[in-house]
Amino acid sequence: MNRSHFPFDRSRRQALKMAAGIGLAATLLGFSAAAQTPLLTRTIPRSGEALPVIGLGTAIVFDVADTADNVARRDERRGVMQTLLAGGGSVIDTAPSYGAAEDLLGDLLTTMTVRPKVFLATKVRTAERAQSIAEMQQSQRRLRSNRLDLMQLHNVGTSAKETAAQVALLNEWKEQGICRYVGITHYLDYANERLIDVMQREKIDFVQVNYSIAERAVEQRLLQVARDTGTAVLINLPFARGKVFQAVRGKALPAWAGDFDAASWGQFFLKYLLAQEAVSCVIPGTDKPEYMLDNLAAGRGRLPDAAQRRKMLAFFEAA
User: In this predicted structure, what is the pLDDT of residue 71?
Assistant: First the structure.
């Protein structure tokens, strides 16, 4: 699951205006110049493949059915994808449980003819083998892609035996060429020990977890285990469902944020996460091109060092 977008639309909009002092038109006009600075990449440990550090989550925000009432919203999502790819990003994460998200994503990948440019990740959540296979095949049809880049076990359960069987099935799909990588996910802190256990027992390629400046439980152990086991890390809920924007509502971005090239609160919060070298890519759910553009800027320029991260955290906690 990725973060829910709608609770903080207003908070982020206000934060962007305060930080930049410009409207959408000016933001988009500045895109070409910003895109000249390459997006940072991180290496997937098990393959050496370079992965852009900013991606896109589709939970809730891409749950837009193909109806006459939704034409404008679907076009807006197209703009989000165009902005991501034009800015050097590639990772798009979805799931069968995200309503119409897989269908919309499949439509856009096809009509935009951009499938080769996208690192496409989805998930499977059922425990029974035949149902898992059926769900995976449904995702292939919806996404209009027989080969997926990453297939993830969605929200790892409590049964170690069941999880091992599910991971084994994912590895079968990898051997068959259905997917290039396999991973596991969860979005709640209490599941971190489950994820750690799987990382230590199985040779998985990716783990997807929630992490934000407001919710930092993965810093206790999980990120280090990911480094020790050679597991790439995707980050969902990087804005804590809007909690981070709500905390700084009405506050100006501190001048010292420029020391690590953060020009907005969104960039501030994403750079805090990207400064952790174990983090491979953050995948905030985004439904507006200007938000996607702002997210991409967090993956360019300098990142905060350890002392600056402590200063960021102290500032946020005092907000």
Answer: 97
